[in-house]
Amino acid sequence: MPSAPAHHLQVMLDHAKQQGAFTLVDGAQAVAHYPVDVQILDCDFYVFSGHKMYGPTGIGVLYGKNHALEVLMPYQTGGEMVRHVSHQATEFNVLPYRLEAGTPHIEGVIGLAAACDFLNTQDRLALLAWEQSLAAHVYSRLHKEGGIEMYSPEKGTTLVSLSVPNVHILDLNAYLDSQGVAVRAGSHCAHPLMAQLGVAGTLRASFACYNTMEEANRFCDVLLEAIDLLNDE
């Protein structure tokens, strides 16, 4: 991971360990953009979803250290997760079988493995730099326009988050969608943050390794069209 995010995460992990807590990192937003080394992080658990890294939906990964996985109790029962069952007791199987009940999501695992192979064959830092350059370009264009509230930093991120005073973000989103531009609009599972910012939500353009500069400019052009149109109503 880049030094600044890794440093802040490491501080939190170290503090949690000092309190005797297990540490779990939700890496769903990280794995598609950053090279991640769980041994360096030294966390007890690391989780991420397949669809965030160009894989299929309905599949994800739980990494865990043996000592942490051993204390987890199975919450599902099924084939291969037990050694012996009687009326008196159940003896669970060894890891990882005790936590993988029944028939696994076979096709999802194959698709997820292909996504992992794809990312592992890429220059991850080069991909990250490209994604950040697209976000920085969009930020620069929109910031110059005025009348747009920007919530993401100018540099060092792969997304641009914004709102427009007196224009509802869902109206902006609807216009962008009608023009074939796919973005996200809403609270982004961060209602307390939106309340702190005093907004109903934000419009978020997230850039991936396959996006182009033409698409970044297309987003800006259509967004500005939407703002002009909706401000006239």
Q: Helices and strands, in N-to-C order? A: HEHEEHEEHHEEHEHEH
Radius of gyration: 22 Å
State the secondary-structure class.
Answer: alpha+beta
Low-confidence stretches: none
The coarse silhouette is elongated
Order of strands, widest sheet: 6-7-9-8
CATH uppermost class of the largest domain:
Alpha Beta
Mean pLDDT across every amino acid position: 92
Termini separation: 46 Å
How many extended strands?
9
CATH superfamily of the largest domain: Type I PLP-dependent aspartate aminotransferase-like (Major domain)
Question: What does this protein look like?
Answer:
The chain is 42% helix and 15% strand. It has 233 residues and is of the alpha+beta class. The protein folds into 2 domains: 3-120, Aspartate Aminotransferase, domain 2; 124-231, Aspartate Aminotransferase, domain 1 (Alpha-Beta Complex). The strands form 3 sheets. A 4-stranded antiparallel β-sheet has the order 6-7-9-8. The longest helix has 22 residues, at 124-145. It starts with a helix and ends with a helix. The relative contact order is 0.09.
List keywords for this structure.
233 residues; Aspartate Aminotransferase, domain 2; alpha+beta; 42% helix; Aspartate Aminotransferase, domain 1; 8 helices; 4-stranded antiparallel sheet; 3-stranded mixed sheet; 2 domains
